[in-house]
């Protein structure tokens, strides 16, 4: 059933969207000896949910020879992600479609990932004891995109679509084929990720020196006088969070603010059974695991970022599988975005009196003057209030690339 909805954006009714009915289920199966899915590996049932997009995810655990298949709905997914793609590695395939109950194995061609252009990349890992050359490759690899992480310097290849594409909510990622995208995000002082993904057909676009120069010029040094204060937070729990968790938050600065949450994880657990080959058997399941990331984001090009939120869920309820939002005003990445509450309350920012107008690390613990900040008074023009459309963490964003 297609339901016509009106989306409320910034207090006004905006673009109409169609709500699709999607299959919703979770199952597991044993992988073939070659690591591929068996012909009968799928999940089915009578449960459905409604969203603007349907999805099916296949997560393969090669050591346990087990695959988990999960189906459900998504809202406000970035354009250009339809079909099946590797989600960075062969063990993870994510599929999306926009038809009525379209998330079936048959319509996804047995969950076969789309073929994408292949590029050659540098491969090296200083955290593993290697010394990565500045202007050449220690080793090479082949994938659908090259990547480099400047924290410790790691270079390599990825398959399918990079997670950075979903994190930035890039529309029509395929339009960026042949180019470079760099970003830096911080959730806490110990949760900082900054690096680049690139797809230059000439190859080896993730060389250390050239990538670092681009990152410094286009990301770190861009819009230095036009940034937003953001809540900074990273917490995990077996129980659901509420707004009180923000008493543990710090602050940071970036071009944009973000907030992401996951509520479950897919895992395999061994059983006491032994199969015909004398091996242990495993079951796949989803179990509660709550994780929240809030912080600041810098990117090389504002046109690559889409404000709003993406949500994935398996039931028509207020408890999503994941939700990810990007906004662009001071302290906009508050808990209210996760629960679709109005973003009209004033925020209090604690200022350390010993440092003129510097935000201290912990608003909940610092002593000093209290400044009430009204987002409508932001000094820069072109304020973008978060439009509660939505994003995805399909998995935790600590591994963005």
TrEMBL record:
Keyword Signal belongs to the record: yes
UniProt keywords, alphabetically: Signal
Signal in keyword set: yes
Signal peptide location: 1-19
PANTHER family assigned: PROTEIN CBG04492 (PTHR37433:SF15), PROTEIN CBG25136-RELATED (PTHR37433)
Protein name as it appears in the record: Activin_recp domain-containing protein
């Amino acid at each position: 059933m297609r339901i016509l909805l009106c989306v409320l954006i910034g207090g006004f009714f905006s673009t109409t969207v169609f709500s699709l009915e999607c299959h919703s289920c979770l199952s597991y199966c044993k992988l073939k000896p070659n690591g591929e899915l068996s012909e009968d590996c799928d999940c089915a049932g009578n449960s459905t949910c409604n969203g603007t997009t349907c999805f099916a995810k296949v997560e393969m655990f090669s050591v346990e020879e087990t695959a988990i298949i999960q189906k459900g709905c998504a809202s406000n997914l970035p354009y250009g992600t339809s079909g099946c793609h590797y989600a960075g590695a062969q063990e993870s395939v994510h599929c999306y479609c926009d038809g009525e109950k379209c998330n079936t194995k048959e319509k996804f061609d047995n969950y076969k990932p789309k073929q994408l252009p292949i590029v050659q990349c540098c491969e090296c890992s200083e955290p593993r004891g290697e010394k990565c050359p500045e202007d050449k490759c220690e080793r090479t690899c082949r994938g659908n995109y090259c990547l480099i992480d400047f924290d410790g310097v790691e270079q390599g290849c990825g398959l399918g679509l990079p997670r950075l594409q979903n994190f930035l909510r890039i529309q029509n990622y395929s339009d960026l084929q042949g180019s470079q995208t760099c970003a830096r995000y911080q959730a806490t002082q110990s949760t900082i990720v900054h690096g680049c993904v690139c797809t230059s057909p000439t190859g080896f676009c993730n060389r250390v020196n050239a990538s670092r120069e681009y990152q410094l010029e286009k990301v770190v040094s861009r819009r230095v006088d036009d940034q937003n204060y953001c809540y900074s937070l990273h917490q995990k729990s077996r129980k659901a969070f509420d707004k009180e968790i923000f008493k543990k938050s710090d602050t940071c600065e970036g071009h944009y603010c973000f907030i992401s949450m996951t509520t479950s994880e897919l895992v395999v657990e061994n059983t006491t059974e032994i199969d015909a080959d004398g091996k242990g058997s495993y079951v796949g399941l989803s179990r509660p695991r709550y994780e929240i990331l809030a912080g600041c984001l810098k990117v090389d090009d504002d046109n690559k970022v889409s404000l709003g939120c993406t949500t994935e869920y398996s039931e028509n309820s207020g408890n999503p599988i994941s939700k990810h939002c990007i906004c662009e005003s001071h302290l906009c990445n508050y808990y209210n975005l996760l629960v679709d509450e109005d973003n009209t309350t004033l925020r209090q920012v604690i200022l350390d009196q010993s440092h003129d107008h510097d935000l201290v690390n912990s608003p909940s613990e610092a002593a000093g003057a209290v400044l009430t900040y009204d987002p409508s008074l932001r000094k820069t023009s072109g304020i973008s209030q978060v439009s509660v459309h939505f994003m995805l963490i399909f998995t935790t964003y600590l591994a963005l690339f």
